[in-house]
Design a protein that fits this description.
Blueprint (H helix, E strand, L loop, with lengths): L1 H21 L5 H12 L11 E6 L6 H16 L3 E6 L3 H13 L4 E4 L4 H13 L4 E4 L3 H4 L7 E3 L2 H14 L4 E6 L5 H13 L3 E6 L5 H14 L5 E4 L2 H14 L4 E5 L3 H8 L6 E3 L2 H18 L9 E2 L3 E3 L1 H12 L4
Parallel strand pairs: 1-2, 1-3, 3-4, 4-5, 5-11, 6-7, 6-8, 8-9, 9-10
Antiparallel strand pairs: 10-12
Length: about 325
Amino acid sequence: MARFRTWVGIAVAGALSVTLAGCSSTGGKRAEDARNAAAQGRAAVNTPRWTFAMITHSGDGDTFWDIVQSGAEQAARKDNIHFLYSHDDEAQQQAQLVDAAVDKKVDGIIVTLAKPDALKAAVARAEKAGIPVITVNSGSAESKAFGALAHIGQDETIAGQAVGDELNRRGKKKALCVLHEQGNVGHEQRCAGVAENFSGTVENLYVNGTNMPDVQSSIEAKLQADRSIDAVVTLGAPYADTAVKARTDAGSEAEVDTFDLNAKVAAELENGTLGFAVDQQPYLQGYQAVDLLWLYKYNGDVLGGGRPVLTGPQIITKDQAGALAKYTERGTR
């Protein structure tokens, strides 16, 4: 049932893109013109040049958020949107960025809720000012309660459960779940979901994600101390390669698996260095968030019926990695 709900969410998100491209008074020609305009960086619509702000909890240099931003920027070009992007991995600073967007009187806000309590007042202030808000990536459980129009992303518990199922299929017995951002509710939900469906044992390891040498040494020490660990699950693509290095230095044979996908992860899946990855389609998260805000401003549309619009999870193995490599190389997967 969990997988059914996931794929329904993905299908709904995909149908929205098809609808945007295909519905017009002149049929296919206008749809084709719109696609060509977007590809050339020109607006495909003649609606007002609204300003949308996206504020995420990304730290510096996180390739995952580069992909989210890329999707949002592509949709913004198509929709004639002036797009503002800002980020801070400190929750209070992120809240201040939301407040700054409200002060600028933007026409719409997209925000992540990795640490929802810290963002609640800022989101409420945006809504009081009449600014529509969409949450993306993290905070699906809090999105509706905070008054957001919709949440776009994967259900982190379902994603974790999918990992547990895959570990079972691979015959694993003990997994190390590496949390690189303490206090991030989505990360906790992922590891809890793994434990819920995995028939073996799951142990959480908290590391300082801003310090890769510390991440590597922490994983290495754990693998040296406990030889029964046969799977390491990292919660972000940049940490997968670090876990591989830790495994090598520890002399461990544990399989390394990861959430999220990028070019390096795709290559390491293809050559067998990694076991599998969980893709939540970050490009789609950014793209659909901007598109949905535009639809709301233009036509009063909302999506999801009060439930998250799911963009994942999709389990990617060696068999699928090659086909996705060209997309990861251009930065859209």
